[in-house]
Amino acid sequence: MTLVARLTHALDSGRSAAPVLLTGDHRGLEARAEADLTPAAVLVAVTDRTRPGVILTQRTETLRNHAGQVAFPGGRIDPGESPVEAALREAQEEVALDPALVAVIGAVDRYRTVTGFTVTPVLAVVPADVPLVASEAEVASVFEVPLDFLLDPANQVEASAEWRGRTRQYYEIRWQDRRIWGATAAMIVNLSRQLAW
């Protein structure tokens, strides 16, 4: 069975599972209408290898928002774009991923961030060792983390921190010297609950 077929089957099988955490600790965001949130999309690009991995980026320290954080390639959805189109465009802009090399499986459940975005993760498969080039303006580095490591609940640690005068709950995943946390980690946790992997 191909990786695309395995992920498609895992996603279809997992959709019947219990509801997942679609938002983090968002007191005050619940009342916000969906129309008031900024739509965004990210590409969850799984590499087609014996031990599949997930492509992630480390954002540059010079960015105004989320500087230095680990993220999926992605960003705002432009007018007239679908989440899939936006995720593919952003991945091409950020890491030079050729959309022709991407086998899209589909969008998974959206995630609402505390910063006012509604993010649609787009699950896809890309060839192993596809050449990627980080956009100097946005991306400090591109790296890959094994999919099974990310999806393992033992590696998904719940934590809390003070933010804008409130205690916020979040997930954190440590991979080598990388700290994956916030919305990216939460979307990984959601995916791990949606995939019967």
From TrEMBL:
Q: Which cofactor does it need?
A: Mn(2+); Mg(2+)
Q: Pfam families from the entry?
A: NUDIX
Location of the Nudix hydrolase domain: 37-172
PROSITE patterns per record? NUDIX (PS51462)
Keyword list (alphabetical) reads:
Hydrolase, Magnesium, Manganese, Metal-binding
Q: Which CDD domains match?
A: NUDIX_CoAse_Nudt7 (cd03426)
* GO MF: coenzyme A diphosphatase activity; metal ion binding
**Which domain of life does the UniProt lineage start with?**
Bacteria
What InterPro entries would the database entry show? CoAse, NUDIX_hydrolase-like_dom_sf, NUDIX_hydrolase_dom
Classification via NCBIfam families? PRK10707.1
The name of this protein is CoA pyrophosphatase
Biological source species = Sphingomonas liriopis
